[in-house]
Records
---
Amino acid sequence: MHNCKEAKEQLTELLLDGMDGRSEAVLDQCAECCAEFEALAATLRMTTRLRETVTPTEQYWTGYHAQLRQKLVHARDGFHAKAQRLNHAKEQREELKPGLGFFFASLRQPLRLCVKTSLLPVPLGLVLMVMASVVALFAIRAARQPVAPPPVVVHVPVEVPVIQEKTVTQVVYRDRRSVSKTPKRVVAGLTTDNTLARSQKLQPEDGPLTLSGFKPTDEVKLTVIKGGSPNEK
Amino acid sequence: MIVSESDSDLVRRAQAEDIDAFCLLAERYARRIHLLASHYCRNSQDAEDLSQEVWLKAYQALGSFRFDASFYTWLRRITINSFLNHRRSSFFRRRGETTAVQLVQIDSETPESFLESHSSSPENIYNKLLFENVVSALSELTPSQRLSFLLRHYEGMSYEEIANAMSCSTGTAKKGVWRAIGKLRARLSPDSEEPESLTSLANEY
């Protein structure tokens, strides 16, 4: 029995394989399938035709290949530079760090010798090999550890904050009645032992201060009171 | 009498860093690769860049060629991977700008040369319209579907080969091809809604 869906799939495959001729067995005289076949064939003919027409001219290909050659030369130079860098880095690594492959390769030969010659019992040989490998591993690890450079003493001045002493101000009140009624200036003058004070003592209190009668002395007497200044040492 | 070297000989020379040998290989197969690229990308510049990228990748990977298959089979595998990795061109993202691009190309030519090269021949106009329609229909597909169709129709690969090259199932490859043909048929058939029927034009030529 004719199935249009299956027939369409078969027709598409036939057309894609280049069989443009009508297959009566597939179409089975179905009008719908015939129309579908014609439409599909026309569509694929057009795309095939397009494939031939979109090919660029020879002039285009000349420039295309010249540009491609430039890119290839550039890429080759890049490969060489990269390969040189990689080889250099590999050599440096091998010089600095002997790998585990090298370690196991060095163990292979003595192991073969032990097995072939049978100089030692196998368990003892294995124990010796394990011990040797452990010692070798420690030796490699020690060799890999970088030597610590000698310590460098650096003098750096550091400012350390100092806690300031706390200054406490205490206000002391005194009774007004205990204050002497003697003028302060006169009292102060009495305590000082100089000529000016003596001359002032003779002056009346309300009068103006003058230098009349002032006679400079030949000696100056100074009294130093220790402990009066906070900066005194 | 000049006897052309076989692909294998050229590949051996190219593996020994002979660029001339590789360029000879490129001259042999560049048209096929470019044809696929021009149908995969809408823009001709993108197609040129993509096809040259394929050759550069092939040159880089030439050391891994083991002569198990033909050189073109190996090259086609690189082409497929490059196409699938290639980002979609701006046309596929913004289809509305096609006309503007075309106008710039026309303006850049002198009127005489444009008439000689384009409008003097109805066949050229037809081909241009056809190309626009075919690639526009292909652009509505996913990249893998589009590539499946190109490999099946232009390269004649079987569905198994396509599936193997694209790392997908045979059913996926087959579905992609059929969907592409369906789109093309809808766009190019006489009963399509296009302003001018291309099928009728096709019958004239």
Note: Helices of chain A lie at 4-16, 24-27, 31-53, 58-96, 100-117, 122-144, 184-191, 195-202.
---
Amino acid sequence: MSKDFNEIVRHIVDMGGVVEESKASEVYVRVPRDRLKDFARYLYESGAYLKTCVGVDERQLNDLFAVYYIFGLDELGKDIVLRALAPEDDAWVESIASEVPAADWCELEFRDLVGIEPKNRLVKRLVLPDDWPDGVYPLRKEFKHDTRPPRTFKEEIAEEVGIPVGPYHPALHEPEYFELFVEGEKVVDVAYRGFHVHRGIEKLAESPRFTYKQVPFLAERICGICGFVHSTCYVMAVEKAAGIEVPERAEFIRSIVLEVERLHSHLLWLGVAAHLLGYDAGFMHAWRIRERVMVLAEHLTGSRKTYGINLIGGVRKDIEVDKIDKTMKTVASIKEEFGKLVEAMLSVPQIKSRASKTGVLSRSEARALSVVGPVARASGLYRDIRKDYPYLAYRRVSFKVPLYTEGDNLARLLVRVDEVFESLEIIKQLVDSLPGGGISVEEYEIPAGRKAVAAIEAPRGEDVHFIITGVGRPYRWRVRAPTYQNIPALRAMLRGAPLADAPLTIASIDPCFSCTDRVVVYDVGSGKRSSMRIIGGVQAVGS
Amino acid sequence: MEVSRLSVARILQIALKAGRVTRRYPREPPLLTPEFRGAIRVDPTKCWGCGACVNVCPPNALTLTSKDKTATLEYFVGRCIFCGMCAEVCPANAITITKEFELSSTSIEDLKSRVVHRLVRCSSCGEVIGTEAELRAVIKSSPISEEYMVLCSKCRKLKFGKAAMLGRGGSGD
């Protein structure tokens, strides 16, 4: 399984790949577009996960379209980026989705947004709305960021909408749409329609409206829960591309705030999971404890959420001595209170019985879909970006990566419980060993045409940002939020399971909980449709 | 059901220990840490109207618009993300970050505040040079003669070039 990195690169070169750029953490290899599948298969069999794929309009640079497939070799902590080129008048690349199922969505995404056709696979619209005109590709450079193309109406859309209170319910934000097909009580299939809240953030960041320095604040608004992850990942990508050295103290502060964010996110999730299981006392107390994390975050950064302290080259806010005391005290008391709450929660027999053996995701399915974060770790995949690709200050701390093999809802719950304790320990260690020095570098240059991949372990899993630098602003910036990778796994979890478990299972991948969503239930036998309210929804995919 | 009783006892114990944690807001003041960033306030007596804050503002909450004789700096709190970058870059220290967060209103005008500056035009060609306040600040930091002060950079160069050619020095002494 585990091979030497150089050996893998050499094999790729033997297969016909051309190494374009070689960095300490990633290698860019140009490959023929009609043989992508062979390379993908080889990498996948060598143990690589697909992080994401990115379509780029590079006509201003070399008159071609490019597709980047980013593979992460977790065991070696390095990335291999395959780059395939296609001319404008014949824009296609070979699809790898049959070999690497995890590529399913991102291929459809570059088909929608850049207009590069993935060949030899089933295609359908994924990101663009149904009323978007054909042949208009928003991520092509000639498309201005504030263009509103005329809407085109198609007959079949009107026929499909059976119940008007669909995903566009006025009271709900961040909608997503699951259609569950049932036979009686059993779910037989699941269809998903998302991207209702695609905000064109990537396009906006490359428009003249934004500059390198302003994008961290935009990135922070990709997600309402793990926003700091996104702004950190963006600045890390830019710093990596431009070769900017960040002061050690800034790295520590970023790591501390990232862990504070994980605490609040997991406590939030645990509360909502308890609520879904009808255990509102657990919900209230999880959120009561979480409130202390929110206050701590405000004390450290100036804001309860969307902290706004990330800059390219460092951070804006220092952690002074009095804040260290306060952090230590909060961490100690949360640890005690959270321990007691978990004990109480897990002693409720209904919680255990409803979460056990429901929503099972097997290890092989998890691997095929390259799922990330607690979902992967609950299905026996040892994946944690903090360990595999140590970034910021994580190489300075010791912590355990919780691993469960059952793959059910309880396993995912327990992974998060364990991670709360680990995060508390990490914060303690980081605060204890906070180095001196400055917190940001003022002088730096960002040359155009550089590329970098940055990844961070968000509360929901691996968050990936890919950047090609431009003049004054990114030339191309691609964000792959963790939920993007995990939603396709829901199909495997829900199929064949009782309908009553569906809300908890959908929730168990921890899509964003700030919203309420709807599931449409089809009864396959009678053809009747009804809708079911669930708590849940995905924010992070709408980047 | 023994186990169930145990779990009830446990959660009761937690609840009794925690007590009441919510506040009687708005009758009681809300909990704000000293670091909290709320709406900003622009001090019209200090502002130069230079536009540094406008350039850095990520959501365009600050805008600067000029109309023949005036330039207006407008702060629209409805767009503000409370990042405080403007206060950091302000060369005149005219922007303070307040702890105000109760900002809702039924009128959009309540969400806007403005600082109006008078524009100065070049006495030679009529181009806009800057705001009065900006020029005052420039004079304060580096003495420069009135004569050059009211010229735009283009005309100033011309005048300086002429003066230098005549060998008469350029700083207007």
Note: Residues 2-18 of chain B form the longest helix (17 residues).
